[in-house]
Predict the structure.
Amino acid sequence: MIRTVAFSRNPQTFSSHRRSVVSANGLRDHSRRDYSIPNPNWQLGEDQIALRDMALRFGEEKMEPHAKKWDEEEIFPVDVLKEAASLGFGGIYTREDVGGSGLTRLDAAVVFEALSQFCVSTTAYISIHNMCCGVIDRHASEHLRQKYLPSLTAMDTFASYCLTEPGSGSDAAALLTKATKSGDHYILNGSKAFISGGGDSDVYIVMVRTGDNSPKGISCVLVEKGTPGLSFGGKEKKLGWNSQPTRAVIFEDCKIPKENLIATEGFGFNIAMEALDGGRVNIAACSLGAAQRCVDLTTEYIKGRKQFGKPLADQQSLQFKLADMATDVFASRLMVRNAATLLDAKDPGATLACAMAKLKTCDLAFKVCDDALQMHGGYGYLKDYPIQRFMRDVRVHRILEGTDAVMRMIVSRAMLKEKK
């Protein structure tokens, strides 16, 4: 049974130097953006408010001025990602001994919502990179943790998560990429599809089949870029998410050492599902940020735009639409933060809460962005205005990390499950 919990009012304090790096990175110390209705700081602790404020300032000054160019020219903003890592955003919930921030999933959701108000695509990649760091930190050997995570959390190197295949999307357990034992190595053959960071990332977290055709036959391995037998497809041309490259990842007799096995053989599907729970909260938070920004932009637009001799804001139909948009954002935020808190608590209802939060938030966020575009009229359709970019970027959130249909399947199965 899903339940709700109170958000932490005394969250784990993020490292003290994170505050000082704000000025060191040239971020203006202006008052935080608390004008959104309802206030996004509601029920956050002081440290979480400071963390959100830091993310908002970074997004406003380091991401927003370039987001249009990144989108149009398909630029992967490596330098800005490294700047984000200097604030601790490269390993938000990775342990501190390897350069992570050691924060919570709720803290991460707050950060991703804030950053997505300025560039959804780039923030979504940061969330995927964090998911990969989390897998290594939680499940890999100490040797692999110490070998890879210091550079990953600093974003001197980048990571990609490889689960989806050309023939297995929603049916993740049907994956065919195979890892065959050969002495002290595994030989990988197969391919992965739609991989964010594919070709540009340095480390690939790959789900492979080491046993039978059941979920228990799936294992998780780490593959370095440059490994013989590893190659990449052409860069995909996409509707959105253009600031991160997407390619197929191909394994042809790709030989990796056995020590690159994460956890144990047969535990890969468990790792994948655990990672997806967190990934669903992360991507819902990215949708939430886009929706909040569209509400804010639309509020200001209809105040200034006049038709029939008076501001659009005087039209009751638009007032009601704006109210619905703000209510949808508020309800989504409650679901996202509740799911993140349940994840932190390792609550047995977390998987269900994550599926519900992703389903409802990603659907509502896309609708909010679409309504915002409609309320901007013809201007919303122009690429000079950011509304269309937010709408394009959040559309894929209803597909990745589990489609809407898969989320409904998770929820309905839980409801119909026979009680023991």
